[in-house]
Amino acid sequence: MMKHLIKNQQRIFVNTLRSQELKNYFAYLVIFAVLGALLFLFSQTIWNIAGSVTEPVLAGIFSYSLLMIIGMVILIGMPQVFKQLYSATDLEFLFTMPIKTKHIFLMKYLQSFIGTPLFAFFFFLIPFAAYGVASNANILYYFVLILVLFAASTIGLSIAYLLNLIVIQFVPASRANEFMTAMSFLSGLLVYLLFMLPQISSGRSFTESLMAGLPILPDWVPVSWGSNALIDATNGSLSFFLPLILFLLLTIVSILLTTTLVEKGFRTGWIRLSEGSGKKKKRKPKKERAQGVSHPVIAIGKKEWFSIKRDMREWMAFLPLAFLIVFPVIGFFMGGDVRLSDLHGFNDISWPIAQGFFLFIYALFNGQIAAAAISREGLSAWILRTLPLAGRDIALGKLWISWLLPFIILTILECIVGVFLGWTWWQFIFGIVVKAGITIGISSIGIWIGTIGAKFNPSNPQQRLTFGTSMFLLLLAYVYLAVLSIPYALMLVSGEAAPLVVEMGNDSSGFFGFVFNVFGVLLTWKASHPIVVISLGLLLMFILSFGIAWLFLSVSAKRINRGVTIDIVSETSGKSVFKRKSGGSLY
């Protein structure tokens, strides 16, 4: 039976590839080109240092790489595993057939392995094989390398399946959306703890332990078995058998442990999620109160807020903040080498660096969140189309709420960081006001991008833009940020740095030399008249920001009045089944 199931999946995969649009093939080509370039650079670096790497350092690299494979498969594979187990469209048909549940589960397991685990396998296989060639490793090394990398990918996939099968037994069917949000956060936290394990276990930073040749992980940690097997196989020693067998046994145990929950966690979980909750909440009757008529801009913003608030999956857009800000800060202070008191008081250094970092985060999030506001209408777009709303009101209503949410979250984080670092009150106020003005332009660009590349996927709220427009938005946001960083840097950089900047301009030529020369002249003026130059820089920055915001909002309003195109993705096929054409007004 497994043979027939695998053959059927093979036909589905081939037909899916044949039915793809040309632009999807182009997107795949771009992704493979980028990954190929990264692999080439990574492999070239390993090739160059292969002769100078000692065995203790190599053991640390192998151990941490295996840990990265397991973490990558868990983090990226969790949503994919959930989809294969409980949201796949062929399950309803397969469960009606005289097929054992375990066979269906194993088929889904193999299908999931072709995704992230297989990618992680090849991503680490190529550079490590390059190391073997450069260091003249024994022929045994290549066979052991394939087995160890395959085992690490399988362990990560088994953990992802096991977490899904366990947690689904405790989550009500009516909380499926919250379940996916919790699982994504749980997997991210688990991966973070895996990466922090070497630092916690040794009490010193990872790079310090690695360069000193100290063991990254204790010998009892399973990935150390794989690392030891690779080291012994490199030298041609037959001692690799014991650690390799232990690592393969762990892989088999992880698979068997996962299959023990198949009947209750797989079939029963799918039935519960498919049927939904049979019980309805009894709501207490609310007292009626007089409702005033809000301004259209306020009403549209409130509608967006209610849509975001009631679907927990919408908040997954903010999850990367934990990995970009919260977790690195915790890990930074857990290293033991840095104390908070060491950073307190250096405002002239910590404050400008923090401003640049937070602007980078704003450029990453604001545009994406604003662009998602357009595609969020999806199948309910016809409701707004019946209301007497102008495109200008809709664009402004979506702008202020999509700008306000990340601004509140990041401002709270900035205030917490500022309190710990001892910033002055004027640094708090100045930084918040300036970033508020700059980020309005980024959000307005996102609104415009949303009108030209909107996409609505009911099962995945994170897919709100087509691939091309998403990349274009990211590029445009950072170009905008680079332009406004000139007057912003003029306000942050001290006038005492004018001689250094002028010297850099004299040493440079072309466009960069011109920029340095102009910036040096402005800093010279700032040294003589600081208040005047800072005021002019602030005025110029706000003129550029609000001018760009007005421009893109005007264009967005015109497109909304004419009608925008939203690609509606089918929950059954995963492809766009129809589009909201731009022949008439969307709203």
Automatic annotation (TrEMBL):
Keywords: Membrane, Transmembrane, Transmembrane helix. InterPro entries: ABC_tran_2. Coiled coil: none annotated. Pfam families: ABC_tran_2. It comes from the Bacteria. The chain crosses the membrane at residues 25-50, 56-77, 109-133, 139-167, 179-200, 240-262, 315-333, 353-374, 395-422, 428-453, 465-488, 508-525, 532-553. This is ABC-2 type transport system permease protein. It comes from Oceanobacillus neutriphilus. The lineage of its organism: Bacteria, Bacillati, Bacillota, Bacilli, Bacillales.
